[in-house]
Amino acid sequence: MMEALRKAIEEQGVGLEKSIVKVDSFLNHRIDVALSTEMGRALAAAFAEDHVELVLTAEASGIAVALTTAQALGNVPLVFAKKGDPLNVGPNVYTANVFSFTKQVMNTIRVDRSYLPEGTRVLIVDDFMANGEAVEGLRKLVMQAHCTLVGVGICVEKGFQPGGDRLRAAGIKYVPLAVVDAIEDGRIVLREM
Amino acid sequence: MMEALRKAIEEQGVGLEKSIVKVDSFLNHRIDVALSTEMGRALAAAFAEDHVELVLTAEASGIAVALTTAQALGNVPLVFAKKGDPLNVGPNVYTANVFSFTKQVMNTIRVDRSYLPEGTRVLIVDDFMANGEAVEGLRKLVMQAHCTLVGVGICVEKGFQPGGDRLRAAGIKYVPLAVVDAIEDGRIVLREM
User: Model pTM?
Assistant: First the structure.
């Protein structure tokens, strides 16, 4: 595991109840920019042999690390799937439904078809893996577009929730930079890796 | 104006009706990562003497250029204001209302108080300036937090809408990297600068 990420989780992460991992102070509200850049480099290194042509994420908190990953992959384009339904986006989109456990709502994510050309080698990147709904929605967009999914890169996985194991079981190349195995009395227990 | 940005707007931007500037293909849906990095450098250079301690933006599409600006300012932290009201965020927040003309809805944006410490020198960065509602909301957060606003950096201003001129009239240091003066028969007319 990246030492800087381990240190940030141990020093700044907050475990709440049995399942909430709060890493707002460096990952998904306030962003530690040097750490974000370093995580992007680590994810790019993990997929360096996979000929990634495009990084795909979902708004909003995945955008930072998806961007630093795309930078480290030699400035491949980054596409972020949008939520909701603004007026100035046409009907020419791929869509997927994503249930947010955090917000307890169903969102529709969408990508303009022209930004996922058929055959593109796509790396999905997100900040967090819990139940895996967001990544599952992004995978559906990749499949609809007839792109090739080369893998999934994640900053922090909650190992006690099913999203990560589902990807492993599906035989997808999956790289989490850190895995939280449990929360014990407010302490975040990280997996050795 | 940044030559690379001018080129991207002229070659890829689409003008619709009298006021819609569509720059989805490189700025706010698909992101041209090299251009985003270059825009961040240009904004950082414009505020190099202003002792920026923190970059503030609003989710979602401002995050990319806010991050590259923070990188170019020597990895100062980036904070993005969140929309809506998820379950795992406490009441300890600053909030402001933002009307989205694009989506025709009122959003509440918020920042955790601990991420805007009193006295911090804040640079607001966003991808787009039109009516200026988003930046106005971010300014309110900065004021509530008793931080110092050093300025506002923007990728693309729609010069025929009031947001940019309102900042200029208020005497705030304001740097747009490109200004669209009009849309004429689908062609985007850029201001010489």
Answer: 0.96
Chain B residue numbers touching A78 (CB-CB < 8 A): 30-31, 33, 64
Q: How many Cβ atoms sit within 10 Å of the Cβ of residue B144? A: 15
Cβ-defined contact of B78 to A64 (cutoff 8 Å): yes
* Residues 6 or more apart whose Cβ sits within 8 Å of residue A154: A125, A126, A127, A128, A129, A135, A164, A174, A175, A176, A177
| Partners of residue A190 on adjacent β-strands | A180
Q: Which of A112-126, B63-77, B92-106 has the lowest mean pLDDT?
A: B92-106
Interface mutation vs chain B, best among A31, A87, A95, most B CBs within 10 Å: A31
Alpha helices by DSSP H, listed for A47-162, are 63-72, 133-144
Distance CA B64, CA B46 (A): 18
Do B68 and B36 touch, CB atoms closer than 8 A?
A: yes
Q: What is the arithmetic mean of pLDDT over A16-38?
A: 94
Give the DSSP H/E element, type plus range, for residue A148: strand A148-158
What was the pLDDT predicted at B50? Answer: 98
Angle at the Cα of A65 (from A36 to A15), degrees rounded to 5? Answer: 70
**Cα gap A62→A154, rounded to integer Å:** 9
Residue B134 one-letter amino acid: A
Cα gap B181→A31, rounded to integer Å:
34
CA A89, CA A67: separation in Å to the nearest integer? 23
Contacts of A28 (CB under 8 A, 6+ apart): A61, A127, A128
Residues of A in contact with B33 (CB under 8 A): 67, 70-71, 75-78
User: How many Å lie between the alpha carbon of B77 and the closest alpha carbon of chain A?
Assistant: 5
Put simply, whether A112 touches B (Cβ < 8 Å) is yes
- Copy the structure tokens of residue B189: 């007319």
